[in-house]
Amino acid sequence: MPGxxxxxxxxGIDVSVNNNHLIASRDPAHPANMICELCRxxxxxxxxxxxxxxxxxxxxxxxYIAPSGVHKERMVPSDMFVMDLESKEYLRKPAKYKASxxxxxxxxxxxxxxxxxxxxxxxQNAVMVTLLxxxxxxxxxxxxxKALPKLTExxxxxxxxxxxxxxxxxxxxxxxxxxxxxxxxxxHPGTTAVLVRRHxxxxxxxxxxxAKVYNEALDYLMEIAIKMKQFGIPTVRE
Amino acid sequence: MPGxxxxxxxxGIDVSVNNNHLIASRDPAHPANMICELCRxxxxxxxxxxxxxxxxxxxxxxxYIAPSGVHKERMVPSDMFVMDLESKEYLRKPAKYKASxxxxxxxxxxxxxxxxxxxxxxxQNAVMVTLLxxxxxxxxxxxxxKALPKLTExxxxxxxxxxxxxxxxxxxxxxxxxxxxxxxxxxHPGTTAVLVRRHxxxxxxxxxxxAKVYNEALDYLMEIAIKMKQFGIPTVRE
Amino acid sequence: MPGxxxxxxxxGIDVSVNNNHLIASRDPAHPANMICELCRxxxxxxxxxxxxxxxxxxxxxxxYIAPSGVHKERMVPSDMFVMDLESKEYLRKPAKYKASxxxxxxxxxxxxxxxxxxxxxxxQNAVMVTLLxxxxxxxxxxxxxKALPKLTExxxxxxxxxxxxxxxxxxxxxxxxxxxxxxxxxxHPGTTAVLVRRHxxxxxxxxxxxAKVYNEALDYLMEIAIKMKQFGIPTVRE
Amino acid sequence: MPGxxxxxxxxGIDVSVNNNHLIASRDPAHPANMICELCRxxxxxxxxxxxxxxxxxxxxxxxYIAPSGVHKERMVPSDMFVMDLESKEYLRKPAKYKASxxxxxxxxxxxxxxxxxxxxxxxQNAVMVTLLxxxxxxxxxxxxxKALPKLTExxxxxxxxxxxxxxxxxxxxxxxxxxxxxxxxxxHPGTTAVLVRRHxxxxxxxxxxxAKVYNEALDYLMEIAIKMKQFGIPTVRE
Lengths: 238, 238, 238, 238
Hints:
EC number (chains A, B, C, D): 4.2.1.109
Mean pLDDT of chain A: 93
Oligomer: homotetramer
Strand content of chain A: 15-25%
Structural class of chain A: alpha+beta
Largest interface: A-B, 29 and 26 residues
Number of helices of chain A: 5
Pathway (chains A, B, C, D): Amino-acid biosynthesis; L-methionine biosynthesis via salvage pathway; L-methionine from S-methyl-5-thio-alpha-D-ribose 1-phosphate: step 2/6
InterPro entries (chains A, B, C, D): Aldolase_II/adducin_N, Aldolase_II/adducin_N_sf, MethylthioRu-1-P_deHdtase_MtnB, Salvage_MtnB_euk
GO biological process, one term (chains A, B, C, D): L-methionine salvage from methylthioadenosine
Low-confidence stretches of chain A: 1-10
Number of domains of chain A: 2
Cofactor (chains A, B, C, D): Zn(2+)
């Protein structure tokens, strides 16, 4: 835009310190920018109010992670933690925040599944589903199921396939979930998400776009399952 | 805006290839722009989260169709498929997307009804209604019914007319719906929409504005019908 | 903003014809602009989807009225009808629209109550309340009641006062409501709104701001009343 | 932004009168700007429609308070009241508004708890909870509880801790709540909020960010508690 600088944004980020070059980019698709944009959207959807929830994107051997205790709809790229996935050392730590308690769980997922992004929400639909189902959230014969992957073979689930998402018991500290989460992911090679009772959901995917689709489709399916329960309609068709 | 180019947008579209002139327009009412705008609105309404749903607009003998697997709220005109309705050949195909599985169904609707636009959503109200009603969604004596057309004669339904929308059984593959959808539209000359059990709704109209009104009015009526069922109030007044 | 015209808007309205000077103003508080702004807000609240509902603002002896069949969230000032309240003649009529069927009802309200604005919505809460209550919507002992006026004496209702909104039976044609609406307003000098069974609500006030507050407060109260009914809690405290 | 003034905003505020320098700032984090921004957000969340609710931020010995009867989503900094907390005199009073009836209650909170901000909403979740619970809103074993502070000792509640929010009886006039509110805050040193039966909630915190987190987390917990009640699930786990 020659001759007019009115849309130029000064990042106000000193890229010479704290590895700030890792989070300063004008590309909206850069992980640091994308996490901020998606957190605003997820806040609006009620998935991370009250600083709940979290998002991480992997970029080769680096993981970008939203910090703990941040107002998700107000996050900026300079709030971001960046970790080296080999050394597990932080390449960048914002002074004013603590690392997210989800961090070890995101690392478990990256480690076991080689996924490209993880989304964790406190979605009310997720919490309600863990109160209405026992060890698994199960639903079949709803078109939206076709947005979820089979994983154990190529392609997505069919309309009449039964979607099954395991439900873990919650722990007092988020990091204490790590062991059972790992075992659960290993035991369920066909799942792209794990529910945590009275807590929320962890969803992952090959990249942030797949993770976003899976998360939206699952939230839709959990919402309709709750409505079906209210009308006494079984969520799995016989 | 002479003297300041700050609102000038560079499309970044090379109009000399891939028939890109078909989708590059600064007119917000151009089909390629309008589909993007409406998909953003429909995403916000929860009608096409998780890449569900679809929209098509007909422009003379060309059909503009949103692609498969796209995040509907992030769609841009260059994502658009354009088909010649006579030859059924694509005039334009974006390399990175597959054609929507709704395409044959939209073509059926254009073919049988000479409509100007089709909307397909996975609206939760539509899915719930197919779980609560048998072969037809029926409602009468709600003012909003007056937004729907009679079609078999001029003008819209009256307040006390019974609105009737047929419900088709879903199929494993969306394209397999084609035959029953065609028969259903032929058998119900007074309907401007068809529900698909455990799947969603197809709505069409003379043009995109009519299709939008019908879709919004139907979603409103399905929502109130579900609430009436919750309170044990019959949706058809005797 | 000298030296940069990038925020200058060209109305594209020829003010020399069709009394267009009546609707062309850069003042956001001008009735033609305000109606457009509020219709966008009301659309978002679900009060006028599918072209339902309507808004009118009185400016001395002129009434500004949104047209029939318009997508409320897309309305522009040039869509507006303007009527001389003495002669009941249109000072301005947009060629592409029909006058709203609410027009005679808005005129009744201006005539009987000397109000400055009328809002008509198809709010689902309003429709549900007319299905759950008989001749009057009644509620007491909810703080939000204090936003509504007493009218028969100065000041607003108290917390423990019983709010009473009359419910009219609907008619096939909106204009046929005129006679019963007039009688109802005369018979209930303490009401600032009338519900219409299976249709919606008409709300009015001294000016558009008061009408907006009354409409929002009533919608809030109707929403909570429906929830109270769901839990079997009486809406009027004994 | 040299060379282009198109993003320059002229406040149109004469800072030489009425202590207007107290509310004129380009800093989005200034209390006068922040209250306006948060009121827009809270309006969208349905927490202060119909001019209900209120927000106050303390800046050293000055309290900024939103006025009475204002459309919360349209508030501007010049609508703000500013009070000296020592003299209890207004440093600034907008001519067109009355002081909020919440003012004495906000002062009670500042006085007893030395908090930095207070939020008062008419949230439907808050009102419903006061209809479904007796003297206390109680919930345990929901992850979001961990967003609330213990106060009587350092740190936040744990997952399995029981959150307890006292419920006061409402009074005809808001200011008449002052005495019981004061006693209630003194009697419950571990609470950061008080519910008022059939009215709403008062939430406070060390600063506006903490108050916002507590308010969002409480609203989330009240919403899930109502859903649990609908399904007959106890909100406190045994």
